[in-house]
Design brief:
Elements: E1 3-5, E2 21-28, H1 32-43, E3 47-53, E4 68-69, H2 72-79, E5 83-86, H3 93-102, E6 106-110, H4 117-124, H5 126-130, E7 134-137, H6 144-155, E8 161-169, H7 174-179, H8 186-189, H9 193-196, H10 199-209, E9 213-221, E10 233-240, E11 245-251, E12 261-266, E13 269-274, E14 277-282, E15 285-291, H11 306-319, H12 342-357, E16 361-362, H13 363-375
Parallel strand pairs: 2-3, 2-5, 3-4, 5-6, 6-7, 8-11
Antiparallel strand pairs: 1-2, 8-12, 9-10, 9-16, 10-11, 12-13, 13-14, 14-15
Amino acid sequence: MIHVTATDPDVATAGWKRGKTVLKAAVVGIGNIAQVHMAVIDACPRAQLVALCDTDPAKSKQRPTLPFYTDLNQLLKEVRPDVLHICLPHYLHLWAARQAAAAGCHVFCEKPSGLNLQEALQMAGLEQQYGVRTAVCLQNRLNRTTETMRDLLASGKYGKVLNIRANLSWHRPEAYYQDSPWRSWLAKAGGGCLINQALHTMDLLPYLLDSPVVSLKAVCGQTLDYANEVEDTATIALRFANGSTGLLQASVANGLDEAVTFDIQAEKGKILQRQQGVYADDQDGLRLLAADRPARIGKTCYGDSHALMIERFYKAVETQPMTVLAGQLPDDCRYVSAADALEVMLMLEASYRSAAEHRRIELEDLYENALLELSALPAQA
């Protein structure tokens, strides 16, 4: 692994002494979310941003002092970064991750981990195939509100969870799709509001309950008069292994962006998320338990946990041998691996399959069939 030495006093922070070696980080895909990644890397004592890559040469103006590439493989060969941050359109995630892994470079990928479950399975296999770590940025798991809800449910204080309901009501104008046409095409986006906007919310449903989804039934459709192939509205009814039920409603056809909400009904009370705050509603009344940190970079919906997830990933890359799997890492090194992200990608695949076939989908059957299909694919070098 190639390192550079941090000599800038601003890098020597958070308990790291000046002169400590740091990881070389590069970013491919210089769009909106890349701004968050670059800002986090700039502030992180463990890494230094060393190169950017995008097919649009004009993006080089954003960081004129950095090496800029329009060819990812050339960047990987000449710069040899330790970590590649993938901020590309969905259909390029697996391709870029494979190029990086084959070059011995660790991967930190924006969600999703592929266009579909098949691609997600292939990305999950890169760690073992190439001996590199692959993270998927499902950073909302690290939000204060998420941790508070999960810990409270795990404590058993409220008894068995009867039902969990989540709602995402956002607004995406037609220009959102016209400015980046790939977002409107199934072949390049993989879907619409579920894979693009609601994936974080979907991911938290089994995570909060610490119980996998066993079956679901979904309805997906278009309510906006846009020339899109992808859905703008979806409703999913879920059944969990622990006996709980759930409902996810997601739409980008709302007139404005509203905060994502969760309503968790348990035997002895309710837990609510409203406006980035978590509330308990029980015999002691309604009270605030925790609130998320406001987003410091980018949109409010991005939250403020990118930095924590990236820092954990960097620490795992630097301090933990590859024999220690992501799920076995110490808490301060634990990130969401591509293998961890398979659960939400399975839910996503089941949702689209259910909507297309108008039936309930059993997730175990779907996963087993996906593994069989994967085994029939030709090996990737």
